[in-house]
Amino acid sequence: MTSQAFTRILVGVDDSPAAMAAARLAIRVAASSGGCIRFVNVLSDGELTQALTLMQHDGGLQERRSAAAAGLLRHVAGEADRAGVPADTVSLNGQPAAILLAQARDWAADLVVLGRADVRGPGHPFVGTVTRHVLEFSERPVLVVPRPL
Question: Which residues partner with 142 through β-bridges?
């Protein structure tokens, strides 16, 4: 049996504690395997954001969301840099699960790392809809990281 080296690690990040734990774990894995990381943040438009945008009353919401995403990506890329791990960042708009799956495939990731959601729906596993979708349809190994206790 051969062990797999994870040298191309795709990490889905948002501002949740679980996503930050996932980013830190991915950095440790990449540092130990000589790998690199791609951090991906996906801005998805909820119904309220879409309605405000259509009414042209978003009050700069899109710009603030984009600035927050850029700050988050700078933060995790800085953590990777301090650990000596090469990293790039991508911020996209759309459906998070579909974009993460496409990024994993197109970038040829060896491993996808995601944080586990803090909230669950009735009868749903405690992983969140995006993570559950990625787990179900990924062609790559997926590591799901809980939030720190």
Answer: 112
| Ramachandran sector of residue 84 (left: φ over 0; alpha: ψ -120 to 50; beta: rest) | left
CA–CA separation, 133 vs 13, rounded Å? 16
Residue carrying structure tokens 């951090």: 39
Of 103, 126, 101, 102, whose CA–CA distance to 116 is shortest? Answer: 126
Residue 126 DSSP symbol: T
Question: Quick one: CA dihedral 69, 77, 8, 136, positive or negative?
Answer: negative
Sheet arrangement for strand 142-145: 87-93, 36-43, 8-12, 111-115, 142-145
Encode pLDDT of 41-78 as tens digits.
Answer: 998 866 555 555 665 655 677 788 888 999 999 999 99
The pTM of the full predicted model, rounded to 2 decimals, is 0.86
Q: Which secondary-structure segment (H or E) carries 14?
A: none
Angle at 132 between CA 130 and CA 135, to 5 degrees: 110
